[in-house]
Amino acid sequence: MQPAAMNSPDMLGQNLQMLTQIIDAQQQKLECQHDWLQHSLTAFKMPQMTSEDDSEVYIKTFERHAILTGLDKGYWASQLDALVMGKAQVAYEALPRDEARDYEAAKAEILYRLEINPEHYRHLFWAKKGADERRLHLLLQLEGRIWKMD
């Protein structure tokens, strides 16, 4: 009977130590959540993206607003996730968890999925040009090739 009695205080001490560790971990988690809420919800208010919004312009506006409000860059990705919709949201949700926390990675993935790149802008530029301007551009390209052949 004595060995069980000796083990009982040791066991109680171990249980108490484990409970203390659990409580400390929960307290840290609550403090982290409180910090996130304090930095993200109260300081940063921006309208959610709509289907009419240009995604690239929206992201640039988001960045400017985040800088002006002093939002810590560590919170940018989670804020952007809460605000984007449509293809941009699908692109963000497809990211692995560690990349989803990185704002630059999230932004790059969204722009890539939306095919916003230099070729996209060239297409938009030439789509706005008239037929005569496009023909002139083609002639200049051909002339440049002819000069190079000489």
UniProtKB/TrEMBL annotation:
It comes from the Eukaryota. This is Uncharacterized protein.
